[in-house]
Write a structure and sequence with these properties.
CATH class of the largest domain: Alpha Beta
Number of strands: 11
Number of domains: 2
CATH architecture of the largest domain: 3-Layer(aba) Sandwich
Bound molecules: nicotinamide-adenine-dinucleotide
Strand content: 15-25%
CATH superfamily of the largest domain: NAD(P)-binding Rossmann-like Domain
Radius of gyration: 20 Å
Distance between the termini: 65 Å
């Protein structure tokens, strides 16, 4: 059996530091608080939101869920986002995606106050990645993947990483980040020809496409030295499975993330890291404003 890259030991080791930071921010005058706007009651969204709520509790951050009716109109939806954006007690917020069809014409990620952009999807945030700056907010799943690699002492610099899937929330930002960390990145997608010719040459394969058990033995190198990062969360026969055919490839690679228990929890953990960052920035701005007005 290859090395299993589990999230739990990493999160258990890192959570106390996040709790300390959260308490310190509260003592300095701003308690971190996450606000999630949900339209409708999609069960998968509710599950994700509950995981986020639990993590907030663990770091003593505030949490608020604003649940709007599935039929909410544009005006009421936009007014809610605006109110949350301007709420001085909310230090991080996002709209849980997907939203119902009638709201999908709105570019929701750009509506969020960039200072509270804990998901890391706002163009201001992406621009920082483009400039190779990883010190600020970073989209949660890519941030979680980088943390998972670093904590397992898996070298990124100089390695060939093949990412399958170019979504705006995973594949594309991850390609920018890994490029900035000096990996050689190949970004594959649904139009890539001879996918296996790319994946077989990779040191690290990241699979983020949303097709259950897609990555098979025929895609990997026979040498058994590759690292597989499985981002997928799919339902198959009432079970949660990833985008990699775990059972058939787990013994043929050096290391692989389990699903569940790998990238998913790292994503939620990254959201907490981003929440502390947004809170810190908002607190600093507030303190700067106060000292300016005292002059
Ligand atoms: P998406 O659905 O927005 O896009 C899928 C991508 O896969 C596209 O870029 C497409 O070109 C590519 N693709 C589709 N079929 C392909 C094929 N046959 N060969 C090569 N590329 C192909 O993707 P997403 O939102 O990034 O989600 C991908 C998966 O990751 C889903 O299962 C989703 O649930 C999961 N996900 C998990 C987390 C987490 O925290 N673990 C976070 C986000 C998404």
């Amino acid at each position: 059996m290859s090395n299993l890259l589990k999230a739990k030991p990493i999160i258990d080791a890192k959570l106390p530091k996040l709790l300390d930071k959260s308490r310190s921010l509260a003592q300095r005058g701003l308690k971190p608080k996450l606000c999630v706007i949900l339209v409708g009651d999609n069960p998968a969204s509710m599950l994700y939101i509950n995981n986020k709520r639990k993590k907030c509790e663990q770091i003593e951050a505030g949490f608020e869920l604003i649940q709007l009716a599935e039929s909410v109109n544009d005006k009421d939806f936009l007014e809610t986002v605006k109110r949350v954006n301007n709420d001085p007690e909310v230090t991080g917020c996002f709209v849980q995606l997907p939203v119902p069809k009638h709201l999908q014409h709105i570019d929701i990620t750009q509506l969020i106050n960039p200072k509270k952009d804990v998901d890391g999807f706002h163009l201001n945030t992406i621009n920082q990645l483009y400039l190779n700056d990883l010190t600020g907010l970073v989209p949660c799943t890519p941030r979680g993947i980088v943390t998972l690699l670093a904590e397992n002492k898996i070298t990124i610099q100089g390695k060939h990483v093949v990412i399958i899937g170019r979504s705006l929330i995973v594949g594309k930002p991850l390609s920018l980040i890994l490029n900035g960390l000096n990996a050689t990145v190949t970004l594959c997608h649904s139009h890539t020809e001879h996918l296996e010719s790319h994946t077989k040459r990779a040191d690290i394969i990241v699979c983020a496409i949303g097709i259950p058990e897609f990555l098979k033995e025929e895609h990997i190198s026979p040498e058994g030295k590759q690292i597989i990062i499985d981002v997928g969360i799919n339902k198959k026969d009432n079970k949660t499975v990833g985008d990699a055919d775990f059972e058939h490839i787990k013994d043929k690679v050096a290391a692989i993330t389990p699903v569940p228990g790998g990238v998913g929890p790292m994503t939620v953990f990254s959201l907490m890291e981003n929440l502390l960052k947004t809170t810190e920035t908002i607190l600093k701005d507030k303190t700067d404003e106060q000292s300016d007005s005292a002059i």
